[in-house]
Design brief:
The chain starts with a helix and ends with a helix. By secondary structure, the chain is α/β, with parallel strands linked by helices. It has two domains: 113 residues, no CATH class; 276 residues, Rossmann fold (3-Layer(aba) Sandwich), CATH 3.40.50.200. The strands form four sheets. A seven-stranded parallel beta sheet has the order 6-9-5-10-11-12-13, sandwiched between helices. Strands 2-3-1-4 form a four-stranded antiparallel beta sheet. The protein is elongated. Helix 8 packs parallel to helix 11 and helix 9 packs parallel to helix 10. It has twelve helices and 15 strands.
Length: 405
């Protein structure tokens, strides 16, 4: 016993903590206790299930750990047991290394094993809870705050953005890790404002990017601030015309070949489609998005702002592999404007919702923060959640993240 104990102590180097104590037998008076347990089964609420399973007579798994053994463990630890298990013939209790050694001198103790604990360490880049400022509420609503506190902040995930353009001068975007950018409207590398643009051309995209990528400690923290980003300008705000869909498709294909892991898109197309065409197989953006998903690149897209009527989705939110995002207010109530399904072929949409009323975001053209409304600002929140989950599970494909959400 002494040699075994020395080997045991060396193998798991016990520290003070919670342990399972497994007993070597069921103690005295087993037959009488089995009879009493059988009577309890017959008179108890589980009798029908036990009859069907053919286990009406009690066996050792119906016996609580022997009382005398439990009492001796409690006396040695000077504490009550935390858990008592009939199935395991064991109890869990707080123990010191010295007490563990004493327990192994008891002939009825078969094993002492640490209760499973998390080995997770949040790391150094987890923001303090009081550093979120204005964005904390909208992140808490969709449990992104809890993911951050576990250390899952989007690290290692590349997010593609499809929008109207992006300016990175706001304080919360100074640290954004941008891997690449392209303007598909003007066919150049400038995704911020340039000559010929309307003055607020990059406004929408800057705001959606801030919801994901923003980081200004004490003021504002985005949903997946540790992710990297590839920025595609595909929207011309001067007008709504069919070629914008072409820009969107080109941008998506570029993001896919550039190594994006997921896409956040707060754009949609409906002016030249009928509701009957929101069937997941008609709009070119929808077709492209579903093909991208077959290659592991899933699009999180705003559902549209044409609610509350049925089948008011915008493309590509009707795609069967596109995560359509609706808008709710701070209490979780659906926004009146938020587009609804079902799709023309009867599928439920949206796939999920986030804050799309009074969503806090970076002010365009300034250094402060404002609020915005629309499914455009809900989509980057849910895309953020996807990025954080993906960073927690790098072995998952993005469709599994989609399913998890």
């Amino acid at each position: 016993m002494v040699l075994f104990l020395l080997i045991f102590l060396q193998s798991f180097a016990p520290e003070e903590g919670l342990y399972w104590v497994f007993f070597s037998d069921r103690g005295a008076d087993v037959e009488q206790r089995l009879e009493a347990a059988t009577a309890e089964i017959i008179e108890g609420p589980a009798v029908n299930r036990r009859l069907i399973s053919g286990s009406i007579e009690a066996d050792v798994y119906d016996l609580s750990p022997y009382t005398e053994y439990v009492v001796q463990v409690e006396e040695l630890a000077s504490l009550p047991v935390r858990t008592s298990s009939r199935y395991l013939n064991a109890v869990s209790i707080m123990l010191t290394p010295h007490q563990i050694g004493l327990l192994f001198e008891k002939p009825f103790v078969q094993e002492v094993r640490p209760v499973g604990v998390s080995t997770f360490s949040p790391g150094e880049d987890v923001p303090a809870p009081d550093s979120y400022g204005l964005s904390k509420s909208q992140l808490e609503q969709v449990n992104i705050f809890a993911l951050h506190q576990r250390g899952w902040t989007g690290s290692g995930i590349v997010i593609g953005m499809l929008d109207s353009g992006f300016e990175l001068v706001h304080p919360c975007l100074q640290s954004a890790d941008v891997l690449g950018s392209w303007d598909f409207v003007n066919n150049d590398s400038i995704v911020g404002w340039q000559d010929g643009d309307w003055s607020n051309q990059p406004s929408h995209g800057t705001k959606t990017l801030s919801i994901i990528a923003g980081y200004q400690s004490g003021q504002y923290i985005g949903g997946a601030f540790n992710s990297s980003f590839i920025l595609a300008k595909t929207e011309d705000i001067s007008d709504e015309y069919e070629q914008e869909e072409d820009f969107w498709v080109s941008g998506l294909e570029w993001l896919e070949e550039s190594g994006a892991d997921l896409v956040s898109s707060s754009l949609g197309y409906t002016d030249w489609y009928e509701p009957s065409q929101m069937d997941g197989n008609t709009a070119v953006t929808t077709i492209a998005a579903d093909i991208a998903a077959s290659r592991g690149l899933v699009v999180w897209n705003s559902a549209g702002n044409d609610g509350p009527g049925e089948t008011t989705l915008v493309a590509p939110a009707d795609g069967d592999s596109v995560f359509a995002v609706g808008a709710v207010d701070g209490s979780g109530l659906i926004a009146n404007f938020s587009s609804r399904g079902p799709t023309a072929d009867g599928r439920i949409k949206p796939d999920g919702c986030a804050r799309g009323m009074n969503t806090v975001l970076a002010s365009f053209g300034g250094t402060g923060y404002s609020t915005g409304g629309g499914t455009s600002f809900a989509a980057p929140l849910v895309a953020s959640a996807a990025a954080c989950i993906a960073s927690a599970h790098p072995e998952w494909g993005m469709m599994r993240v989609y399913d998890a959400l």
